[in-house]
Description:
- Helices cover 28% and strands 22% of the residues.
- By secondary structure, it is an alpha+beta fold.
- It has helices at 22-33, 47-70, 77-90, 158-176, 185-197; strands at 94-95, 108-111, 114-116, 131-140, 143-152, 201-202, 208-210, 217-221, 238-241, 244-246, 252-254, 262-264, 270-272, 275-279, 284-288.
- The strands form five sheets. Strands 1, 2, 4 and 5 form a four-stranded antiparallel sheet that branches. The chain has a three-stranded antiparallel sheet with strand order 3-12-11, with no helix packed on it. A three-stranded antiparallel sheet has the order 6-10-13, with helices on one face.
- It has five helices and 15 strands.
- Residues 146, 209, 240, 242, 274 line the site of cobalt (II) ion.
Amino acid sequence: MNFNRNDLCWCGSGIKYKKCHIEFDEKLKRLEAQGFQVPPRSIIKTKEQIEGIKNSAKINNAVLDLVAQNIKEGMSTEEIDKLVHDYTIAQGAIPATLGFEGYPKSVCTSINDEVCHGIPSEHIILKSGDILNVDVSTIFNGYYSDASRMFMIGEVSQEARKLVEVSKECLDKGIAAVKPWGFLDDIGAAIQEHAKKHGYSVVRDFGGHGIGLEFHEEPFVAHYGKKGQGMILVPGMVFTIEPMINEGSYEIVIDADDDWTVFTEDGSLSSQWEHTILVTENGIEIISK
Ligand code: MF3
Ligand code: CO
């Protein structure tokens, strides 16, 4: 869509287009003409949308804090699901996974060799030595947010602890690689380099994603790759970074019975942390964590 210079800007600032996003749009057009991959307007968030996503993220962060306060040895992952579900509903929000493409629960709980999308169950009881990822996503007022954290139960082995720590460092390095007008694949390159340094591998079949108006939007955020490639990142983009780091190979298998749970193929441990970030004029803001 083209805007007249004297129209109000598409971003909802209330300012004339010529004083607002015209330079931004022209810069994108120039980059595109030079052969760079640029984001479509539809995934560049307006101020109002960013507020909406932040309000959703506030609830999402609070849910994860609640899980952190309550998670303990002897508890079932079903109990985590109930905690997440009831708190989210009490805030007037909706757990984004519930019913999403048939997913049956309000949270993903992925334990030990589970990579992601583990389904809470009364039969899965947390025991000392377990590591697990709790992945929470929320819809509030139509806006989506998404984050996940690792938890270590009781006495955890040196090896498991190291994997959990290094996977968090991978996330932090991925986030540090985000620069306004930089390249998307710089994120994956930074993550892959750090994982490799520690002898770990990076899952390829799943990645981060744009988020906000829908659960999964463009772009797909690969957690491996080469610097200087992929979509140009611009202010107003909101996406998750959520590297899944395996102790062994990056190959995965999906459970044939539930069709959801993703395991490492070799049975090695896997660890994941996820934040949602906003690209700003000068850098980034972490929206959910
Ligand atoms: N939070 C997960 C993600 O990052 C949710 C996957 S969809 C589900 O995309 F249905 F598996 F939960
Ligand atoms: Co996600």
